Structures are given as structure tokens and as C-alpha cells.
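Possible race condition, two jobs.
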Amino acid sequence: MQYLNEREPEYDLTYDDAFLVPTASSVESRFDVDLSTSDGTGTTIPIVVANMTAVAGRRMAETVARRGGLVVLPQDVDPHAVADIVSWVKQRDTMWDTPLTLSPDDAVVDAVNLMGKRAHGAVVVVDGEGRPTGIVPEKACSGVDQFARLDDIAEKAQVQLPMTTPAREVFEELHAHGAQLALGLDADGRLAGVLTRVGALRASIYRPAVDDFGRLRVAAATGVNGDVAAKAKALLEAEIDVLVVDTAHGHQEKMLKALRAVRSLEPTVPVVAGNVVTAQGAKDLIEAGADIVKVGVGPGAMCTTRMATGVGRPQFSAVAETAAAARALGKHVWADGGIRHPRDVALALAAGASAVMIGSWFAGTYESPGDLHYDEHGRPYKESFGMASKRAVEARTRSENPYDQARKALFEEGISSSRMALDPVRPSVEDLLDSICAGVRSACTYAGAANLEQFHERAVVGVQSAAGFAEGRPLPSGW
């Protein structure tokens, strides 16, 4: 990366302060751009879902890995639960989505309560042997007795195909029948997966992030307190693909000790550590054993650190400085926090990050762990909260005595409850990934880059005023 006119900025930059300059390009199509990362995590798009309780769960892990990204399970999750989640994710199909299923005798209200767990908008009715007997789309649940049996309103599944059917054939069958959902059957005719038309298209565009055995990848986090080696050992035995050692202030002795403890286990997976915002912080964590350094203090949507403490750093400059230091040592950084638009992802990658961590933006999706709620106007939303907030601290310290719990509750930082509305146009995390990846691919074509490493090398970054940023915003409501 270089700055426009080779003029280094005189002050630190946020993503809003920066812009990318188009340069000569021979890349003809955004589909010619390879978004695979080079940091050893095996991801085929540079997106990592942050280890936030309101964001990262099994549904998110399955869906994002199927599109090439990675989800980090939170450090508050018990290692035994992590093992169950990892095992479940690794048993998922790499093309077909996991279906929502109910029995013929279940009620309509059961289907309504289940719909918000997946983006495909339908429940499949199966018999006692797992064979499909019908489909209940969301629209079929409207205007009927909520306690009616599903068997009474289920529609016939028009497209039922073997799980081995190529994605394009699935799309063509759905198109031919005017159907939205295909059922994937195993060799015995039991339901094994579902696929929408847009899901079939995505399967031809994205490459799943898979391990050496062809199974979907998933990461998990541990903190720096307690027996770090024991927790890390349990996570590694659960077959996680990336281990994240995480604390809000990563440039401290406790983190360095934790990294040394993790390295004593000789892990065969990449080790990520953070968070830091300086070159020295990145160097110290790398020297202690980190393969990837997590960068960002205070830019997160649920984070109040900067307002409460004055501590942090504008994210674009933090990423640029730490990425340069890490690359000089043959290592990498993840840009963690501050992402509001696809442009921010492109700028973080241009600054040198190998991947970008996203949290709250993904909380308002079907795939996040929270229950789907509706506001007073009937608009769907989910709740999100910061991992240093009172809500998270209470969950993290629930096994401690009341006195210690009360002491720690006095010093929480972060928002304990925030409504994250589901975008009516992009309600699924896959919709958001489409938007992000399309933006990054296009940014690469403007820079003449066929892959992310070329993008970082060729990127030309300028500095703009607030008016410059405002000028680039669309006016969807007109003048």
C-alpha cells in the first residue's frame, strides 16, 4: 500500500478518513479475483466472525464456513460444548444447508417459532424415519389456526434430488418447477439437506473453508485467565482449526504468558492473539508465539472503551502499522472492529490485514444465536451486547462467589443490550457476505489486483475530509 502522492498523513485515520484511488487494471471481471487468505487459516474469503456470544454459534459457524469464512466460538463457551459444536459443524454438508424439520403432528406455532433460525424460510415435515412428507413455507403459516397440525397445511415438495446433484442442476430443477427450495435426499430417501435457488448460485461462486478431511472449519477462543494451557488443550482436542487467545488489552504480560503456555502444547493450528494497536504490540505477541495478531481497541459497535477510558486508536492506522510490523516477521494481522460498510473491509485489506473480523453487523441476521424478536412496528430484530458489558461479565463470572461477581460487575465496559434490526433486503449473513465480497472483488479490479496480496501491494490510499466521505454516500431517498 502507498499513500496518494506519497504523502504520509499527519494524524491517525479511521476507515471514514481513507479512500482508494483507481489505478490501471488488466483484471476484466470481479469473478477473476481470488479472495483466499494467505494466513494459514484455510479461508477462501477474508471474513472472520467475532467471538461474541450474540453473534457466533453453530448456525453461524456452519453457514459462514460454507461460504469460505471462519467463525470464532466465544471464550465463555465451555470446552465440552465447544467440542459438541465443532463436531456438529464438521458433520454438515459443504453445499446443502441444514434443514429445519418437524413432524406431521406438530403445530403451526412450532413452525413459526422455528422459521427465524434459518434464512431459507421453510420447515420440512418428515415422518418417523426422516423421509420428507411436505414443506411448510413461511407464507403458509399466515392466516391459519396456529395450533393446526402441520400435516394439514404442508405443501408437496416439487424438487427432491440426491445430495450428489451438482449445484447448477439443482438451480435448473428449481427454475423449471418455479420452486424456491430443493430437498436433498440420502441414498435411503431420508432428508439430508435443503438448497434454495440463490444457495445453488452461491455454491458455484464461493468455495467452502474445509480442513484436510473436507470438513467445514471452525475456530474457538480462550481467555488469558485461569489454566490457559488446560483450556487450550481441550479446545485443540475438540479439533478446532484455529485457536484465538483473546483479551481486550493484548499487550500485557498475562497475554505473553498465555501465549507461551499455548505454544508449549505444540499446536498444529494457527494461533491468533490480541488485541493490540501498535507495531510493538504486534511484535511482542508474535515473538511470544502468535501466528496472527488481532488488531483493534475501541472501534466495535458495542464497545464503550474509548468513551470510558480514552484508550484506543483509529482503526485504519492501527491496522496499517501493525500489518507492516507483522509482515516484516512473516506473520499476519486480523482487523477487528469498526466495520460498517463493505468499503471498510476493502480498506482494511488494502492496509495489510489478511482478514477482517466482524461482530455486531452480523448479529442482526437469521444465523446469529439469539431469538428473533419484533418491535412495535412488526420489524424483526435480534439483541446484541458487548463482551465486556455487564451482561457478558455476569455470564462469564456465574461460577464465582457473589462477592467477586459484584466487584467485577462494577467495572464493565460495553453495551449490554442493543437491537440489531434485520435488513429486509439482506436478512441473512449470506446476503451480507454477498455484499461484502462483491465490494472487495470490485475494489480489487479498480486496483488491478487478481488476489488479496496484489491488492495490498497495488492499493493507493488517499485521505479525505468528512465532506469527502459524505459525498460518497448514496441518496436512496432522493434529494
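Job #2 (started ~2 s after job #1):
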Amino acid sequence: MSGSSERADRVAVVTGATGGVGRGIALACAAEGWTVWIAARRAEEGAQVADEVDAAGGRGRFVHCDVGDAASVRQAIDRVVGDDGRLDAVVHNSTSGLSPVPVDPTAVPLAELGDHVAVSVSGLRHLAQATLPHLRATSGAMVVLTSEAGFEGKARLAPYAAVKAAQRGIVRALAREWGPVGVRVNCVAPLAATSAMERAFELDADMASRVLGRIPLGRLGDPEVDVGTVVRLLVSDETRFVTGATLMVDGGSCPIA
């Protein structure tokens, strides 16, 4: 979409964008000259990505945000709107640090399950609550990063699969609720080369062959070029009639859509 007619004054918030897919999304938005707020807990890494956004042609900013904490989310969004006066796009990319850790689905400690829920589900609720008034003012859009695990489940990753399926249900409901006020909500289910994926491969010796063996395009996606540009499209005006959808950005891995 480089060189498109998209406004360069757009303001986007990307949660958990200190690396991986979130960083790729931030850089893809930067290529169109957007202001991109890196909303995350790790300040040093977040500031580094904000600098990369600047170098890529956008305006990078960092704001501390723990998506599992409603007050932290409100404060972060207040800071964004206070500084820039608007909010056009929100991307909920954060996931629990336990996401790639294999577990027995019948013996998941409640504390671990709670961490998944706090980040992926409660975090989505907090973001929706804090950002709706601002997205309504700009006819903006939200994208939630879900997973093919939410469609078909994943062996030894039951908590992750559960919250990703829940996100899709919430997004479909939000799309119906927010459509009448001009706000769109969609999901993207990526399969990309990230540090989290590398860790998952390390923790499960057979996972790499299972994952790569079912991708028709024969590789993992690039977080910026393959995933980030698709997310940017979904929060742009060029997809103004798309809402409530889940777009698979996984090289054809998951046949369920």
C-alpha cells in the first residue's frame, strides 16, 4: 500500500509491539507515515521500536501499558489522545508470555489460565472500553491478533487456543455493536517467524515439522511484510466495508475460515 491515498496523519496504537508481529505491524504503519504508539510494559524495548518507526518514515512513540490492568489501559489511551488529539486505529497484539509453553490441558494451573485470560480476553475488554469513544470520533477501526489455534485447537496449547477462540467471538459481537456508530472490528490470524514461535519450537521438538509441513507456501510469514501490511489494510479506509471478519495470514496453513 505504499504510495496509497491513505492519510499520513493517522494515529495508531499497537499493544505488545516490543518485538515479533507487533513490531512488524508498527513498521508497516510507519511506512505510510503514521504516528504509531508502542503500548507495552517493557520501556526499553518499546522505545527501540518507536525509534525504528521514526526511521521507517513514521512517528514513533512509546507509552507504558499493561493490557490486563484497566487503569493502565485508560491512562495509556488518555496519553495518546491527549498528545495527538485523535485515535484512528487500535491493534491488540499482546499475548501471555505463557502462550508457547506446552501444557497438559487437564492439569493447567488456574493461575496460568488466568494469565492467558487477563491478557487476551480482559485486555481486549479494557481496550474496547477505553478506545470506543475515540474510534467513534474518527470512524476508526480495531484489529485483534488471534490464531488458527482458535479455529482448530493446538495439541498441548489448550489455554492459548481457548482465549484465541474467545477473541473471535468477542470481535464478532463488537462488530455488530459498533457497526452502527461507524467503527469496524476484525481479526487477523497470523503465522509468522517470531521469537515466540522459535521458543515454541524449542519447547516442542516435533512442532517445527508439524507447522512447516502443512503450509502450502512453504515458510513462515514475515512479521512486517506479510502480516503488518495486512493489518494496516484492515485499519485503513480501503477496507471500510469489512467488519467482523477473521483474515487468515498463515500461508494457507489453516483450511478453516
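Residues 110-138 form the longest helix (29 residues).
Logs attached separately.
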